[in-house]
Write a structure and sequence with these properties.
Blueprint: H1 10-24, H2 32-39, H3 43-55, E1 59-61, E2 67-69, H4 71-93, H5 102-109, H6 115-125, E3 149-151, E4 160-166, H7 171-179, E5 187-194, E6 199-205, E7 213-218, H8 219-222, E8 225-228
Length: 239
Amino acid sequence: MDNTLARPSTSVEDYVKVVYDLQERGTGPVTISGMAERLAVSNSSVSGMLRKLSAQGLVEHKRYGSVALTEAGTRVALSVLRRHRLLETYLVDALGYSWDEVHDEAEILEHVVSDKFVERIAAHLGDPVVDPHGDPIPTRDGHIPPQESVLLSEAEEGAGGVIVRVNDTDPELLRYLSDIEIGIGMSVRVVERQPYAGSLRIQVSSGEDVPARDRSLGLVAAEALWISTDGRGLPASRS
């Protein structure tokens, strides 16, 4: 049954999705100021909306405290994220969009496409489990496939892994990563942490038979990349 007409408003969906996204990425407690920055609105606007969401049973928030989704709020957020991430995948796979273009397009489409349309996309794509940025796609029943990963910026010297996810909220950053040929599925190893320079020296390779390339990566970019924690990736240096 298509339940598009029973959906919450666009603003409600946007807010609960941002709360979930901030929680999911593990960057610390979700705060009003953090939400305001992501949504490009004032703190007072966020506070007002949180009162409405709390009254609807979608969030838990006490004054000056962090924000958390309720079970009902999580269900709404996962539904929106499923639409968003499937749309991104379809735009890249079927329509040839680049990974820096799809986020803004999906932000618009996620509120207007029907559930029937979204499920047709999922079937057409073979029920993918991640989108073009490596973000997990919630299943139809609201399950998130497990993904063990760590931020590249937090990896120790000598640690390696495979890039499995990238933050998709900054198109310019995505274009920069494309320009320096860093993307999902590539093996990476931290050669040296350079905290005073605000960067990491890394080696990255796109395949077993491809020589590793040295790169200096700023911490802003490193904080947007997640690597697998299963021990895969380039071997540690023997030097």
